[in-house]
Design brief:
Helix content is about 20%, strand content about 25%. It is an alpha+beta fold. The chain has a domain of about 180 residues. The protein has a ten-stranded antiparallel sheet. A three-stranded mixed sheet has the order 1-5-6. Strands 2-3 form a two-stranded antiparallel sheet. A hairpin with a 4-residue loop joins strand 10 and strand 11. The protein starts with 5 loop residues before the first helix and ends in an 8-residue tail after the last strand.
Length: about 350
């Protein structure tokens, strides 16, 4: 795989670093995070006259449209599989499709909403947090904004959902973590100096058993982004270098989207722990002993405009190193879907991609 410490380092603000030890970052000033509890008319996001490009900044925008099969060799089987991938994504981001089914005209999920709220700069404390990080960048000193560290509450309320007496997790979104962290120095022997890491975490509220089925599918999400500190801005959207988003649902397992905006320019979707088959691989002539493989990886290469699907079942990510006498030594398992190389893809097709990502 093309990933090393990049995606581990993205979530440094919340998660421990494994195999990517960060250098001493020097003195850190105060953390300005405080309680934030705004009320919105709705959590729905769509393009409007005042914000005509809202949806372009949602997390799945490029991937959702870019995976569409294209060219003279595109088959009905490919198009059906593309539709199945989108249908599975819809369960997590609550997308309302466009009439042609190849894009969406509305989404409703905590990650896209938080990203828009930060960009619009209308929450005083979030604005102060970005300004503080910018000041630390200018001073060349590490800095951290973290509501978790300060015990500060972030709670969003949907006014229309409250008036409609919607389920608890449809009208109230709580974020245990919003974290910006500036690190002047990255791991040793790396080029990760001068980076800003942002972590966003959402967790649904617990409800009584009889109320569970009325709740939205999404249980939790954890998203991390890495930005170049030298181009970090305090208004609008910061353009990430790398980003991850991990979603967990009540009934459909989880998905994880990894995005690379520099170098390889690739989006990778992992479909995890789905009890029921997500993709009908049999239409492509693939016969599985298990109808729902435990590892499905959908990779969109924007430079090559190619969509690839990889799968494996009951294959661990790592296996014992046969060349080592150390019983604990391991190596990547080449049979695991996350480790398979391009020419081992079970399915591939020429994809629409996105010209701005090439």
């Amino acid at each position: 795989m093309r990933h090393s410490c990049f995606f581990t380092a993205i979530s440094i603000a919340l998660l421990g670093i494994s195999g990517c030890k960060m250098a001493d970052t020097g003195p850190v000033a105060f953390n300005p995070a405080t309680n934030v509890s705004p009320t919105f008319s709705t959590f729905d996001l769509e393009n409007t006259d005042k914000a005509p490009d809202n949806l372009e900044h949602t997390r799945f925008w490029d991937f959702y449209q870019g995976l569409e099969p294209t060219g003279n060799n595109a088959t009905d089987e490919d198009r059906e599989t593309a539709n199945e991938i989108r249908a599975h994504i819809d369960k997590f981001i609550r997308a309302t499709r466009t009439p042609d089914g190849k894009s969406y005209e509305k989404v409703r999920n905590p990650l896209d909403l938080m990203n828009q709220v930060i960009a619009f700069n209308e929450i005083d404390n979030f604005r102060e947090g970005r300004r503080y990080i910018s000041q630390r960048i200018a001073a060349g000193q590490a800095g951290n904004y973290s509501n978790r560290a300060n015990g500060a509450l972030i709670r969003f309320t949907d006014q229309n959902a409250v008036l409609d007496d919607a389920s608890l997790n449809d009208k109230l979104w709580v974020y245990p973590t919003l974290d910006w962290r500036y690190l002047p120095k990255g791991p040793e022997d790396s080029d990760l100096d001068e980076k800003v890491y942002r972590t966003i975490q959402y967790v649904s509220r617990s409800v009584a058993t009889e109320e569970a089925e009325a709740q939205p599918e999404l249980i939790s999400l954890l998203a991390g982004s890495r930005f170049d500190a030298n181009s970090f801005v305090t208004s609008g959207y910061n353009i990430p270098e790398f980003a991850t988003a991990d979603y967990l649902s009540r009934n459909y397992g989880g998905i994880e989207l990894r995005q690379e905006f520099i170098r390889d320019k690739i989006d990778t979707l992992f479909i995890k722990s789905a009890d029921k088959p997500v993709l009908d691989l049999s239409r492509h002539g693939i016969t599985l002993s298990d109808t729902s493989p435990d590892c499905l990886r959908v990779e969109l290469d924007y430079v090559g405009s190619v969509l690839r699907v990889f799968h494996s079942n009951e294959q661990p990510a790592k296996i014992k190193d046969p060349a080592s006498e150390d019983p604990d030594a391991t190596i990547k398992n080449p049979a695991y879907c996350g480790n398979q190389v391009d020419n081992e893809a079970a399915i591939s097709w020429a994809a629409k991609g996105a010209f701005w990502r090439q």
